[in-house]
Design brief:
562 residues, alpha+beta, MetI-like fold, six-stranded antiparallel beta sheet, five-stranded antiparallel beta sheet, globular
Amino acid sequence: MEPKRKKISSIRSTPAGEVFIWLNAMGLAVGLIMISGILLLVVYQGIISFWPKDVLELHVEPSSVGSLPNSRVVSGEIAKKQNKKVRRTPSQGDDPDIEWQLFVGNKDVFGFSFVYVDYNSITKVAKPADIIVLERQEYGRAIGYAIALNKGNVRVVEAGAREFDQTLNDKLRQTEERRREINRIERVEIGRVNAAMESIRLKLKRAASDGKLDLSEESGDIQILRETSAELTVEYGVLEQRARELRAQQDEFQLRYRLSSGEERDISVGEIIDYTYPNRLGPLQKIGLLFQRSYRFAVEYPREANTEGGIYPAIFGTFVMTLIMSLIVTPFGVMAAIYLSEYAKNGLFVRLVRIAVNNLAGVPSIVFGVFGLGFFVYFVGGNIDQIFFSDRLPTPTFGTGGVLWASLTLALLTVPVVVVATEEGLAAVSRGMREAGLACGASKWQCIQRIVLPAAAPGILTGIILAVARGAGEVAPLMLVGVVKSAPTLPINATFPYLHFEQKFMHLGFHIYDLGFQSPDSEAAKPVVFATTFLLIMLVIGLNLIAIYLREKLRGKLEATH
């Protein structure tokens, strides 16, 4: 029996919960791998959206390109290579069933931007060095061969001349300066005049409704308003004429280019934003162009139904909405948590409030959007219009969606997160610190204000981080309370009163939804979708890093105090 006892005692016992610990660790590892994979996919797709690709010239058999049945030469960028949907039969040979999707551009000519080419029909593949890609104001990019730069019917410089690129770059720089001047006139100057004329119109309407406006003999104030309106009308005409002249100068020079099919076309230099010879670019030049395109994507306004240009208004709108939401949700969430944790006595009411807070965290976001539309927009905004902006009715001012109502709606959506995190932070403060403050003669509020809240600040900032992370990515409620496909002006601009919280705004999340599911050209919009997703992730990470930095700084001060 003795040897058997030794054998049994030598067996190592396994703790009861060790298996579940390993399962949790495995689940966490799988989750991190999945999240990292998704982020890497978004980053990769976002980067290659701006990477300058080579343009190939394919010589194909007639009728092999479905969208271009009579073309023998097709030029474009390879978007993807895939297996054909219709397989070849054994009688057709053993050639691979592969087709290439080409981005051919020239949407104004073809009516589309992508074509499929049967790989087996390609007889020759070339990569000409002189093929040019034009980025235009409308219809996306154009691909062809530059012929000459003309001024009316006079040829200025041939494409093969040494000074062609320098001349074209000079003209593009001049057109870019004029384009900025036109935007300044239309967005700032004309916008200021329109705002002043609208203000005068409302004053005259208010005076007429109050019975103060007598057409037979007008008062001095009314006469001044009419004279000011006449002066503004003249100023508006001058500005409009100046913008018209600048636009006419934009069309002074034309670039003639030839398509791969042999057709020649003219394009105004004012319509060209930039151009490249992609097949001439080296690796360093491509990297430089990648950063240039990425920067322009972040600072420019969108074009072509948001499928071209930049997304600056969406970035700005998302940032402003998230900032306002944070400023609103933080005091309300913290005050609610202080009351529940420090002042309220455990009872039926407090239990019901806690249940309501926990249930609010699980309510679908679209429900908050419906509530925001009914309460904030129709009820609160409608009453504000009736009281303060009755002269503007029936055109609503606050009685329609805007950045303020969107921020309040998302504040309601995220307040449970802040309340729960703040309560946990308050509960983590030791009882001894509270009793020490009370023993020194401090009141309960002084103890909370000067001892408990600073110690709980890291937990409060944790709640704010979670609220920002959720609120910045929400889309469904915003579709009801203020977000739009395209906003002509920003919520904060140079027009008095500078902060326009009643205005609608653009949002990165809605921009992704709009391009991915509502765009008329989903293939052309796909790169913009990934690039916008990447920027939204970077914006959320940036806001979170700021909050994390503040939390760690407060935590370090607290540890140093102890």
